[in-house]
């Protein structure tokens, strides 16, 4: 074999080995309901290994397993607070200049739903938009932490969808309904630990068509800065979530649409828009 061919083969072998080793370092956690009991677990293939103890500190496998298809996946953590960043990609600014500090708002914890749950299209809603985002899951209490120390407080990341009713958004003083209504915060199906969350491909698809696609390396305020900045004023606690912002443009969805948020190396969050005027619940929060 010629030298160039040998080099090419060796490069492929090294790349494959590196990807394989990297992938093995990723742990995917789920929060799920099975036969009336809510548990945390580690997802390996199509099998969930149940965990006991504090999932953010020192969880242990109980030895019990359950098939992924036999459970209801919930939002991957049960936060007290859900903080969200707006206008955090230049592509979402519409030509405006970035602000000096991130624009933050709260989403209600009761807005959260899991993978596969139905998003409510309220009777008085008229302009419901997707916003695909990477969501940070806090693993350790963060109070006035530095940018350098912030990564130690991030447990994992997950795909999320900051559902937004644009007409309400123009009228709500604090986006109370527009971004905080029940079911307006899909997150999941897993939270992944061990990925390089500062450089992941984030994509949004509606009915199979890709409408958003950008890497998290393009965030104007990265994950460490967001956690540090938020913690100056609000204490973040284990399980709390930070929506990091959406790229590009968004558009209206209709009842029956299937929206998917894919975060590279993490997973695909899939939800369906319910019928107009339907009232679903967030029982799988």
Which tags fit this structure?
Fumarylacetoacetate hydrolase, domain 2; 3 helices; mainly beta; five-stranded mixed sheet; single chain; 285 residues; globular; six-stranded antiparallel sheet; 20 strands
Count of β-strands = 20
Task: Note the gap between the termini.
Answer: 58 Å
Per CATH, the architecture of the domain at 82-276 is: Alpha-Beta Complex
Which spans of ≥5 residues are poorly predicted at pLDDT below 50? 1-23
Percent in strands: 35-45%
CATH superfamily of the domain at 82-276: Fumarylacetoacetase-like, C-terminal domain
Helical content, roughly? Answer: 10-25%
* Main beta sheet: 6 strands, antiparallel
Describe this structure in a few short sentences.
The protein is mostly beta strands. It has helices spanning 3-24, 166-171, 223-233; strands at residues 27-34, 37-44, 47-52, 60-67, 72-73, 82-86, 103-107, 112-113, 118-121, 128-129, 132-138, 154-161, 164-165, 185-186, 191-193, 201-206, 209-215, 241-243, 258-263, 267-276.
Give a written overview of the molecule.
By secondary structure, the protein is mostly beta strands. It has a domain at 82-276: Fumarylacetoacetate hydrolase, domain 2 (Alpha-Beta Complex), CATH 3.90.850. The protein contains 3 helices and 20 strands. It has helices at residues 3-24, 166-171, 223-233, and strands at 27-34, 37-44, 47-52, 60-67, 72-73, 82-86, 103-107, 112-113, 118-121, 128-129, 132-138, 154-161, 164-165, 185-186, 191-193, 201-206, 209-215, 241-243, 258-263, 267-276. Strands 1, 2, 3, 4, 5 and 15 form a 6-stranded antiparallel β-sheet that branches. Strands 7-6-18-11-12 form a 5-stranded mixed β-sheet, covered by helices on one side. The protein starts with a helix and ends in a 9-residue tail after the last strand. 41% of the residues are buried.
